[in-house]
Amino acid sequence: MSAMPATGTTAQGNGVGLLDLATPAIDAAKAAGAALLRSLDAGRESTAVRLAIGSGVRDENMLTDLVFRARHPERGGRPLGAGEYALVREWIEIRNDLVRPLLSGAVPLPAHVPIGPASGFVPRPAEIPGGGRITDKREPSAADLVTVTGVNGPVPLHRLAAEAWTELVRAARGDGIPAPILLPTSGYRSVARQAALWADALGKYGSPEAARKWVAPPGGSPHHSGRAIDFYLGGRNSSANVDNLRTLPAYKWLVLHAEGCGFYPYSQEPWHWEYNPPAARPELEEEAWRKKEERAKTPEPVRKDYVAARLAFRKLRDAYARALGVAKAGHVHHAIELQVLKGFPGVFTAKDLNGQSNMRRMNHGGFHNSWLRLFWNKRYRALDDLLKQPGAPKPGTDEYKAFVRRKLEGWRRVADGAIRRHERGRALPPILTS
Questions:
Q1: Which of 38, 261, 263, 311 sits a CA distance of 20 to 30 A from 132?
Q2: What residues make up the domain containing 376?
Q3: CA–CA dist 188, 103 (Å, integer)
């Protein structure tokens, strides 16, 4: 095998973009154009490799380096060491399972079987920012769970994952992948079910450290979200069978095409894929605006007060969850968010916002908390615009505090009313999506 690549840094890592790195692999990416770099930063690996090949890059090591470096921004350009066996193996797998098939055209996407956006299907985001493995592992509401045909019977999935899985299987069948390949063996799992699997794994592997490589502890599994799928690839899904599964046509097909439907892999288990497509650009822009504004106007004493308030809330959260009749471990949120302490200092105290009257349930009958975040981000921006107008009250004055409090408490009532209507079975309120 050729020398291992030096790992790099993407724009999603520590702030240094792929364009800032001067290596042969990154120079090749520059030549291929901005679309390739955007694909790498978003985790769309097969798209990035296709773009690079289309621009004339045919060196398999360069192409493998591009993907590997984008996966591991934390390495900051360090070359792989002789003892980093897992990373060396990952590099080889990228080359063998992704780059070489694309270079050889061994597993092309037939023109008559388009998949994902090319077929008119656009995966709908389930969390922000998305574009990789699942981070929001909360259980979905009953309204968001549907069943699909599995290898051994019906399998519950989140409705968005089921929608994308249906598109994935349609394209796979058109490419010659026969049933029952790519039917799920597992989907949604409750925390209680995960606890039983964790206990079995502890007995099988002997320690939490070893068990964690194959089974997540209860509360930490992406399967809780209903958006993780264990696929049947044509062989037994087992830690002892990983090497064989990576050689199967179904696995290689997923490596090339699954991201078109919003599915991302877990490198440890070739059968395990997670539905988490990138959020739409307006949602990402809202989030970027919020973070930028926070950084620009948060003096150190205010930031410390905010951190102290968050720590205090952690101690109160389970008690509030019990009082609101929802599960333990954080299924509550602030109606007026703690970040108001940073964005509009002096208007509320941490005691005000951490009080029970400002607590709300998260499991709003299919309602997703990211919609609330977008709602509030837009109101924060609107409030900032109002405060910049001539004659607006000045920060720190009693008039300013009363004005901001009145606006935020009014918007809290709007959000509460919209959510109550949604809980009674109506469609998602436009006020929370506009």
A1: 311
A2: 281-432
A3: 36
